[in-house]
Design goal:
two-stranded antiparallel ribbon, Jelly Rolls, about 280 residues, about 15% helix, alpha+beta, 6-stranded antiparallel barrel, Type 1 dockerin domain, 12 strands, 2 domains, 4 helices
Length: about 280
């Protein structure tokens, strides 16, 4: 018995065709903000302009306290309407205590600042206006709801970190979803919290920050499919017709970027209206 393909099946085939017809692009996004949160009830230490960020617990001689990194990248080079397909984060580990420990990325949930505080070590310096500290998002006026920062409990990506050198957090579903959200809603780009082992003494890891120099700065490598020249040409084949309609119907009610012709965050009636208005062009 011959079966008639469903709209969902047709949509899947059309998405495959779309991916094949639009050439993927890869960019390296630069870090534009970083900081280290240094555990302290009064929030009296910061590392806004330091050469490094830290993640993990320090040794007993340093108080056995926790360090949490914050890092944010400029994604403006990725056009609105693009579909992110791969994300990699590269950080250079410039100093470490002995041992291999997991360092995880968590999407930040609130904005945070980077002041001019500077110190060569992980002990920090007195915070300056706008610094992120253990208790403040922006010192000295805007506290975190809970000391230690605000970030998703979901791990976006994790990596086992041992000796000094470059490390790459490979592409994951959650890492791609984070960057896709930032492309779709740039105001929501709050970066990641860099969380190390917080239970073992001397597990802290030191990564180079954007201030360290161009050869050791953090790198965010993003591969994406750019939107077609005409937003209604959803599959990018140069013609607006049935294949585009199939993709839009298959993505109905979702935030699928390639099908969101009017770029309002949801695929719906307005997108369908614009597609029919451009039909055959």
């Amino acid at each position: 018995m011959t079966r008639t393909p469903t709209i969902a099946a047709l949509a899947s085939l059309a998405v495959i065709a779309c991916s094949a017809s639009i050439e993927a692009t890869t960019v390296v996004c630069s870090s534009i903000q970083d900081a280290t949160l240094i555990q302290d009830p009064a929030g009296e230490f910061a590392l806004g302009a330091a050469y490094n960020i830290y993640a993990g617990r320090v040794g007993e001689n340093s108080g056995g306290t926790i360090r949490r990194g914050l890092i944010k990248f400029n994604c403006a080079s990725i056009p609105a309407g693009s579909v992110v397909t791969s994300v990699q984060l590269k950080l250079n580990l410039s100093s470490t205590q002995a041992g291999t420990y997991t360092v995880a990325l968590h999407r930040a949930l609130l904005s945070w600042g980077e002041g001019t505080s500077f110190a060569f070590g992980g002990g920090g310096a007195a915070p300056t206006p706008g610094d992120a500290t253990w208790t403040y998002r922006f010192y000295p006026s805007d506290p975190w709801p809970t000391p230690g920062g605000s970030y998703s409990t979901t791990v976006s990506a994790s990596k086992s970190i041992g000796g000094v050198g470059w490390y790459t957090w490979g592409s994951t579903f959650n890492l791609v979803a984070d960057v896709q959200q930032w492309v779709d809603q740039p105001s929501g780009n709050l970066g990641w919290a860099v969380i190390g082992n917080e239970t073992v003494l001397q597990a802290v890891k030191r990564f180079d920050a954007r201030e360290s120099g161009v050869t050791t700065q953090p790198q965010l490598i993003v591969t994406f499919t750019p939107p077609p020249a005409n937003p209604a040409d959803v599959n990018g084949d140069g013609q607006i017709g049935a294949a585009d309609l199939t993709i839009v119907l298959g993505a109905w009610g979702t935030a699928h970027a390639a099908s969101d012709i009017d770029n309002d965050g949801i695929v719906g009636a307005t997108d369908l209206t614009r597609l029919f208005a451009a039909w055959g062009s």
